[in-house]
């Protein structure tokens, strides 16, 4: 099954899904290739001076944030909004790492772009397959390799992933016009947070539920922010130092 022209415009636009013919061959490799520690180290070392990173650990965190955006954005948006499945697997996904003029330019090419659908009454099983392939099949092995090569805590890598998923469902999908589609998105998000078993992530806990803490009210009384539990180290790759809006280093201290 193919995507409609309107659907493809969304996926290939801000969500950066791409056909294999559009791959940036000079700055990409098949996802499975990145599991080789020597290859992973070479990619990180090549990328570090381009993004201003002082260490492999910082480079791995920032690259993981970009991969998380590209992988979860296209896959989960297609699933929840268009009710169509994408196979984000080690053998189908291509990892790009282009970064030019101070910003990421990378996309997510897939070798096979054909969308899947489910038989009547089988959406739950179909959803489990898509989510398990994305998280346990693709991201967990990549994060394990990043951890092995750099020592970066796995919790940071998984929170990098979680915050992308939260933004996708709480901001991008929550503003859709179609009420029925919004309801389906909300149901999928609730399942991801509260019901998806740890096996779907290749872990002994559900990282999406684990990091989804209540927002912290700010002093102005008009806003609240869900501050991260871990720091992604973005500030270490900027001069002068810049911080993510949800950085735990910016979290207000509790008044005694």
Give the SSE map.
Elements: H1 5-12, E1 17-18, E2 28-30, H2 37-51, H3 56-80, E3 94-96, E4 99-100, E5 103-104, E6 108-109, H4 123-150, H5 154-172, H6 179-194, H7 207-210, E7 216-217, E8 224-225
Parallel strand pairs: 1-6
Antiparallel strand pairs: 2-3, 4-5, 7-8
Task: Describe the protein.
This protein has 256 residues and is mainly α. It has one domain (5-212). The protein is 45% helix and 7% strand. It is built from seven helices and eight strands. It has helices at residues 5-12, 37-51, 56-80, 123-150, 154-172, 179-194, 207-210; strands spanning 17-18, 28-30, 94-96, 99-100, 103-104, 108-109, 216-217, 224-225. The chain has a two-stranded parallel ribbon. It has a two-stranded antiparallel sheet with strand order 2-3. Strand 7 and strand 8 form a beta hairpin. Helix 2 packs across helix 4 (123-150). The radius of gyration is 18 Å and the shape is globular. The N and C termini lie far apart (59 Å). 37% of the residues are buried. The model has no long low-confidence stretch (mean pLDDT 94).
């Amino acid at each position: 099954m193919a995507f409609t022209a309107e659907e493809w415009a969304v996926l290939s636009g801000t969500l950066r899904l791409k056909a294999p013919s559009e791959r940036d061959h000079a700055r990409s490799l098949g996802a499975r290739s990145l599991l080789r520690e020597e290859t992973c180290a070479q990619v990180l070392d090549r990328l570090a001076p381009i993004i201003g990173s002082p260490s492999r650990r910082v480079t791995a965190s920032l690259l993981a944030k970009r991969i998380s955006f590209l992988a979860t954005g296209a896959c989960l948006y297609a699933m929840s909004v268009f009710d169509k499945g994408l196979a984000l697997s080690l053998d189908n996904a291509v990892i790009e790492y282009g970064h030019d003029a101070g910003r990421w330019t990378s996309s997510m090419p897939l070798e096979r772009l054909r969308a899947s659908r489910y038989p009547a009454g089988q959406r739950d099983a179909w959803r489990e397959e898509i989510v398990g392939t994305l998280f346990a099949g693709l991201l967990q092995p990549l994060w394990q390799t990043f951890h092995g090569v750099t020592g970066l805590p796995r919790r940071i890598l998984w929170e990098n992933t979680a915050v992308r998923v939260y933004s996708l469902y709480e901001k991008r999908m929550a503003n859709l016009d179609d009420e029925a589609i919004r309801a389906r998105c909300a149901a999928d998000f609730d399942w991801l947070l509260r019901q998806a078993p740890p096996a779907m992530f290749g872990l002994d806990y559900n990282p999406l539920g684990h990091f989804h803490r209540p927002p912290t009210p700010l002093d102005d009384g008009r806003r609240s922010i869900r501050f991260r539990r871990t720091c992604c180290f973005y500030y270490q790759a900027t001069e002068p130092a810049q911080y993510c809006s949800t950085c735990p280093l910016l979290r207000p201290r509790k008044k005694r």
